[in-house]
Amino acid sequence: MWSATSQTSRVFGWTDKLERWNSGSYPAEIRTVLDNLGSGRSFPSSHFFTYMNEEQDALKWFIFECIASSWQWQSAPRLSYIRDAVDLIENLDTTFPVFPGSPLQNQTVRGFLTRILDEEQLSFVEMMPPLVYTVRPASSSASAADTARYGVIRFHVLRDANNTSRDDIVTIRKESEETYSYTYTDKTSVAADKTWRHSGLNASQVMGLLSNMFNLLNIDAEPYYGLQVLLPTSPSVMLRAKDLTSSTRDMLYDSVENVMDSWPVAV
Asked: Are 1 and 36 in contact (CB under 8 A)?
């Protein structure tokens, strides 16, 4: 079993491993993922994605197993894992690889999730592939036909170390050459709508919203557990509540501005 705080192993060649599993063998790497997924422990999703080398076929299989394990154990699907895996899949309108129980060519990833999840669960998962967000090369608005692909900036406010379903989430996306969107999801809100989106923002407006969030978290009377920071081309960083000092906030502002000044392109 993995440690709750660290998992640095990286495995390659998942398409072949899945095919061998389908042919009757049971690769140890497959068993490792399934054992950790079924352990009931809340590992960071990065543990799984690093181990699977973020390979596309492995991510699709992982999404299926997040659903299948809920059928097996009669529990709710691991939505936080599904959401994070969806972010890494380049095209949700492609089909599944070969593995035991695979929908194969009968369903796309998007179609499978749409059929299985209810409306609230789909809203949480957000199947607008955030890590392959597309924009026009000039200053016009984003379009699915565009070929330039961009990642997202994401912050997870962890209210409970053992329950990621209560995380608040901030997602910043590049919309065009000069504009960005800022989306806030408050999963513990009593309101019917738990997600709010600002669109067409310039960089200064985005930084202002981030500043407000950091300042409010810093004076929170009910301290949150931590803040997870996910930036394109950078490792995931976990901050404890006490770490969000003025100097740390300045480092976060600089990191976000660096991404916004030269947003990386997925290849």
From this structure: yes
Q: Look at residue 233 and tell me whether its pLDDT is greater than 80.
A: no
SS (H, E, C) 211-225: HHHHHHHHCCCCCCC
Tokens linked to 4:
């709750």
Give tens-digit pLDDT for 85-136.
Answer: 988 888 888 899 999 999 887 788 988 898 888 878 888 887 643 333 333 2
The domain spans of the chain are: 1-127, 133-267
Question: What contacts 151, CB < 8 A, 6 or more positions away?
Answer: 130, 131, 133, 232, 233, 263, 264, 266
Q: In sequence order, what are the residues at sequence separation of 6 or more whose Cβ sits closer than 8 angstroms to the Cβ of residue 163?
A: 42
What is the pLDDT at residue 185?
84
pLDDT attached to residue 134: 31
DSSP secondary structure string, 77-122? --HHHHHHHHHH-S-TTSB--S-TT--GGG-BHHHHHHHHS-HHHH
